[in-house]
Amino acid sequence: MSRVSRERRPTGTSVSASTRRRVGLVVLAVVPLAFLVLFFAWPVLAIIARGFGEGGVSDMLARAQTWQLVGFTLGQAAAATALAVLAGLPLAYVTARLAVPGRGLLRVLVTVPFVLPTVVVGLAFRALFGDGSLAAIVLANAFFNVAVVVRTVGGLWSHLDRRAEDAARALGASRWRAFTSVTLPALRPALGSAAAVVFLFCATSFGVVLVIGGARYRTLETEIYLRTVNLLDLPGAAALSLLQLAAVVAALAVGAAARRRREGALALRSSAETTRPPTGGDWVVLAAAGAVLVGLLVPLVAVVLRSLTTSSGFGLDGYRALTGGGEGGVLRISVVEAALNSVRAAADATVLAMVLGGLAAVVLARTRRAGATQLLDTLMMLPLGVSAVTVGFGYLVTLSALPSGLRDSPVLVPFVQALVITPLVIRIVLPVLRSVDDRLRQAAATLGAGPVRVWLAVDLPMSARSLVTAAGFGFVIALGEFGATSFLVRPETMTLPVAISRLISRPGELNAVAAYAACTMLLVVTALVVAVVERIRVRSDTVGEF
């Protein structure tokens, strides 16, 4: 055999292996993309089409009430975003820079509000401020999103090289001057990304505004729900969904631009230890962080106390009522049965999201074409940027075209919940898969392992902790999902957040204390899951980028 023929064979083999690899990645990508098209794109496009119909966008734009809704939605979101950023900065500094005892517990306490069901947060602030309080809405939305600021900004802050700041101090700059002239510009990309995401969450807040605002304060999100459920004004609701979608896309564009700038800022990372014991002015920041932490704990304590309080004093009447359907037969099933429905739906949604998100993460980690990677990543993140209420409303519009077995099936609830948590799974697992040295995979393949065996032997062990983290956070978020689920559940398949909403909206003291008792159950479960996840979490702060 000639030398030329010996050299060409490996080349041909390499091309064949590369082709098989590309085909395999395409096959893997088809599964999550097909799910995205059927259970996300189709309902959302149906809303867009209906919004441009008669009585849609043109009519809604001509109404002064529409612009009042838009103004209130954006105004309360901007106020809550500013408050969340200001409250999150001291905590971000403490977790990123100071070597203080209990930092792990601090992370748990900060993260719990972010993964709490929105209904629980709404009832917590309703217990403190009562119904119809604008201040309560702003504070509740800020409370809900402080963790986003702490995780996103703190994640970058912990990797900034301290030497630039130290040099400014050595040249005579005060601590504040060094922070504003050196550290703050470096943190600006993370601050912009966090602010954009927080604004997005506040603008699409549903459970918080519905529970606290009632009929007095409405955002686009709650108005869509009320027009659909109470007024049966589907064209008007669709038009409002389009307006909200435009605001969401704008917020996502700002966040994406900030995230790209943040990736450039990550070049400032230093391998040197960035934490140190607190000194001098650090105690002022610690005091501010402590005050914020107390502010985060007060609503949670209020929920627990309210669940134990009746007109006759402290008691367990609310917890005893969980075995029934509420005062006056508000629910067709007991609260305990609703809780079991929530657990089953959340477990199914988590399994589905782990499959879809895991496949998408593998494809994104292995694809070498930047354009294809960016396109797939954007498509898989779309559910994060569209209101859950809009998606749930879209399901109502498209249900008639589904087979009757699927249309009446309870599987729609875990399907829509999986849409919500799949982007979370991708964001947690993807950085770990990208960090795996490809030479390990090549070595396993050289030893005769196929693609599946390579994944089991190399990728799975190295990404195990991130997978557990994704599953834990995904489960608690699905457990408390309320916006889309409220459109899809039937009386016999009602989930716990929907049951809490029904209880609190009906008269009767027993209904109220039962609702707070159910909230306490969700609070305890959420705190336990977050504590376990925090113990085994990966070192990256990927979760905070939500």
TrEMBL record:
InterPro entries: MetI-like, MetI-like_sf. Residues 70-253, 339-534 form the ABC transmembrane type-1 domain. The lineage of its organism: Bacteria, Bacillati, Actinomycetota, Actinomycetes, Pseudonocardiales. This is Thiamine transport system permease protein. Keywords: Cell inner membrane, Cell membrane, Membrane, Transmembrane, Transmembrane helix, Transport. It comes from Actinoalloteichus caeruleus DSM 43889. Belongs to the binding-protein-dependent transport system permease family. PROSITE patterns: ABC_TM1. It is a multi-pass membrane protein. Its main location: membrane. Gene3D superfamilies: MetI-like (1.10.3720.10). SUPFAM superfamilies: MetI-like. It is found in: Cell inner membrane; Cell membrane. The chain crosses the membrane at residues 23-49, 69-93, 105-128, 134-153, 194-217, 237-258, 283-305, 349-367, 379-399, 411-433, 467-489, 513-533. Pfam families: BPD_transp_1.
